Structure formats: C-alpha cells, structure tokens
Amino acid sequence: MRDRSQLVTIVLAACLLTAACARTSADSASCGNPIREALDPQSGLHLLDPETIVYLSDPPTSGPHVGVVPRGGAETDPLPRPIQVALLEAGGVMVQYGRLADTDRVALEALARELVVVAPSDDLGPDEIVATAWLHKLTCGAVDVDSLQTFVDDHLGRFAGHP
After folding, report:
1. Residue 45: per-residue pLDDT
2. Does the structure show a pLDDT above 50 at 118?
3. Contact at 8 Å (CB) between 93 and 132?
4. d(CA 130, CA 142)
5. In whole angstroms, what is the distance from residue 109 CA to residue 85 CA?
6. Could you state, in order of their start, the residue ranges of all structural domains in the chain?
7. Three-class SS of residue 71?
8. What is the distance between the alpha carbons of residues 50 and 57, in angstroms, rounded to a whole number?
9. CB 116 within 8 A of CB 133
10. Which CATH number, 1.10.1660, 3.60.10, 3.40.30, 3.40.50, labels domain 31-155?
11. Is the dihedral of CA 80, 72, 94, 56 positive or negative?
12. CB 93 within 8 A of CB 152
C-alpha cells in the first residue's frame, strides 16, 4: 500500500509540473503572429509636406515617405512616420515601444544596428511593442527579444520597394 501511495504522489507531482511548465511557455509568448498588410497605393510618393499624410496602418508598413533613410540605431525620440516608411522601403526594420522599464528598453535597444531603428512611440501603451518591416508587422504585449530578433532576421534587407 505504501508503494502505491508513493506512486500516486509521484504521478500527481509530475502532472502539476507539466501544467506549470505549459502555462509558463504560453505566458512567455507575448507576441502575436507576424501579419502581412496591404500595400498603400501612395507608396511611390516622396513627400515635400509630410504633415498632411494619412496612412492605411498604424504604425505604417508602407505609404508616402521622405527621400532620406535613417541609418539605424536607438533613438530617444519618436521617429516621424514618413521617416519610418523610408526606412522600411530601404529594407530596414522599425521597433517601437510604449512606456517600458529601463531594463526592458535596454534589452530592445540591443536589437538596434544599421537599418534597424529602435525608438519610443507616443501612440503605444505601456509594455506594448510593435516591429514593422515593408508590409509586415509584429505586435507584442511585452518585451520578447527572441520573437523580435526573429522578425528582424526574417525581414531585414527584404522589401518590395515602390509598387
């Protein structure tokens, strides 16, 4: 009888451990699936007055833009949308974040390099992160560096260019 009691205890412990691990794995998946968005028909426009533009998506993944492409890196201020789209058209990736703890911000900034811009956004909520590439977007509810790095790796240097 004692052996059976020990066996039941071991089986229950294994079940609890499996459930806890499964929940932790699901909780750590803070990003949704990357989505492909429609091409903005105005993507061929190079802007002289970027203040009057309305984009099809927010943040934009295509559309009117300026002719100057940012180099990449970590920014301390939000990047205007026409500059974001210029980066994306050049094959770059934009990672934007809402209010974050300093440690999370530093973790995101490690993604920054040539043609990868990491910048704050006034339009995102706390702990919200959005990565964009030409016609592609990944939205995260928390910092998930692995998913964001995969998005960067999958999209950096790939773009559709002008329609």
Report:
1. 66
2. yes
3. yes
4. 10
5. 20
6. 1-30, 31-155
7. coil
8. 16
9. no
10. 3.40.30
11. positive
12. yes
Please spell the DSSP secondary structure of 16-72, one letter per residue. Answer: HHHHHHHHHHHHH--B---EE-PPPTTTTPBPS-GGG---SSSS-SSS-B-SPPP-B
Which residues face 36 on adjacent strands?
A: 136
> Residue 65 has which token pair?
């833009």
Distance separating alpha carbons of residues 132 and 50, to the nearest angstrom: 19
Looking at the DSSP bridge assignments, the partners of residue 156 are: none
Q: Which residues contact 158 (CB under 8 A, 6 or more apart)?
A: 91, 133, 134
The pTM for the full model equals 0.74
Q: Which two tokens stand for residue 90?
A: 């050049």
- Residue the block writes with tokens 């999370």: 104
Helix intervals (H) in 29-144:
81-89, 102-109
Alpha carbons 115 and 24: distance in angstroms, whole number: 33
β-partners of residue 50 are none
Report in angstroms the alpha-carbon separations of 85 from 40, 53, 109, 163: 11, 12, 20, 14
| Calpha distance 44→72 (Å, rounded) | 22
pLDDT tens digits, one per residue of 75-112: 999 999 999 999 999 999 999 999 999 999 999 999 99
Task: Determine the Cα–Cα distance for residues 61 and 40; give it in Å rounded to an integer.
Answer: 8
Q: Give dist(CA 71, CA 4) in Å, integer.
A: 67
